[in-house]
Write a structure and sequence with these properties.
The complex is a heterodimer of chains A (145) and B (106). By secondary structure, chain A is α+β, with helices and mostly antiparallel strands. Helices cover 18% and strands 41% of the residues of chain A. With 106 residues, chain B is mostly beta strands. At the A-B interface, strand 4, strand 6 and strand 7 of A face strand 3, strand 5 and strand 6 of B.
């Protein structure tokens, strides 16, 4: 190997190096399985309101709304939010009951890079519903100081 | 004591759903960020937020490093009776702060 080949190889290795410490879509799936206890996830009933294009990943406003009558017999027991590519897949897990009135949760989150965000709702009848939304980030959060 | 912003109505009709918006000043240091000398800064976040209505928990959330600094949480509750709402933030380094607000139900 001559010097030029070595330099090219070193550059290629640097370019292909994975970003350290970020979660993967598999981590997200594992975190969701841990939340649902392996129960099947159904699409629908959950609405995730998050801007599709985010300039600053440090503060991303979002709102989760679940369609539910919120009565003692039929209500949302928990809403959880998961990301794909932040250092950890968990974002927030909120416990609800019939006294919440509406199954609504709004917060501000961080996004390390462009990725899919998944919102999962647990119902009092034991079913789990979800939705996912893609977000494109131009300025990332979490890793740089 | 961290500065807290609480936005909720002072009075509400019985059975009405009221929206509560909360924000607490907190750096939410994620534990993944390198500091000035290159070493990773220790995690310092709020891990749990609880809202109690006359002593009964009506809303609770577990937060993680992925929540932005100065965590903002908004949720709703049913105005059942006049009473006190207490909001508690708990976190790393024994962080604990409680704020209360009274609500008049007509």
């Amino acid at each position: 190997m001559n010097r030029r080949e070595f330099a090219a190889g070193a550059l290629l290795a640097l370019a292909l190096r994975p970003v350290p410490g970020l979660a993967t879509p598999e981590d997200q799936a594992a975190a969701i399985r841990a939340f649902t206890g392996g129960k099947p996830l159904r699409e629908g009933r959950v609405e995730l309101d998050i801007p599709p294009l985010v300039e600053n990943g440090n503060v991303v406003p979002l709102k989760v709304t679940v369609q539910s009558p919120m009565t003692a017999a039929n209500h949302v027991t928990a809403i959880a939010l998961f990301n794909e590519k932040n250092p950890q897949p968990q974002v927030v897990t909120a416990q609800f009951g019939p006294r919440a009135g509406r199954a609504e949760l709004a917060t501000h989150m961080r996004l390390a890079t462009s990725q899919f965000i998944t919102a999962v709702a647990a119902m009092s009848d034991g079913s789990f519903w979800s939705t996912r939304q893609e977000v494109i980030v131009t300025l990332a959060a979490c890793l740089e100081s | 004591m961290a500065r807290v912003l609480l936005n909720l109505p002072r009075s509400a009709a019985k059975g009405a759903v009221i929206e509560i918006r909360t924000l607490i000043m907190h750096p939410m240091e994620s534990g993944f960020r390198p500091g000035m000398n290159g070493t990773i800064l220790a995690r310092d976040i709020i891990t749990r937020f609880t809202c109690e209505y006359d002593g009964e928990v009506v809303f609770q959330a577990e937060l993680s490093s992925a929540i932005a600094a100065n965590p903002f949480i908004s949720f709703t509750t049913v105005a059942t009776a006049s009473g006190t709402l207490s909001f508690t933030w708990e976190g790393d380094n024994d962080f604990r702060q409680t704020e209360t607000r009274s609500l008049t139900v007509t």
